[in-house]
Amino acid sequence: MAPQPLTELEIAECLSGLPGWAARDDRLERHYALPGHLPAVALLVHVAAVQEELGHHAELTVTYNRLDIAVNTHSVGGRVTQLDVQLARRIEEIAPAHGAESAG
Ligand SMILES: C[C@H](O)[C@H](O)[C@H]1CNC2=NC(N)=NC(=O)C2=N1
To answer: Which domains does the chain carry?
Structure first.
């Protein structure tokens, strides 16, 4: 079944269990600082592997030691769905092992 866009309330409920993630412009966003450039790239590759597993893909931007992530669901016209929340949860599980910390 096609994913349904979440309401603002549903998004807020999901975000309460995802510290560091925010909803902005119909996307879920997270900004990480890593211990260096290679750790940032390593986390990007790890996130990419998770994305391939889930069949759901975020925008990933590495700038030196920073990884910026933004995701929504293209198939519903660029809205936030459970697929985005699921990906965010999986990313939160893997990020700490890379030394990721919250960036502004
Ligand atoms: C066939 C494939 O699963 C789809 O095209 C997937 C790929 N990754 C995707 N990623 C995102 N963010 N939204 C989508 O709708 C989407 N669709």
So the answer is: 8-98 (3.30.1360.20)
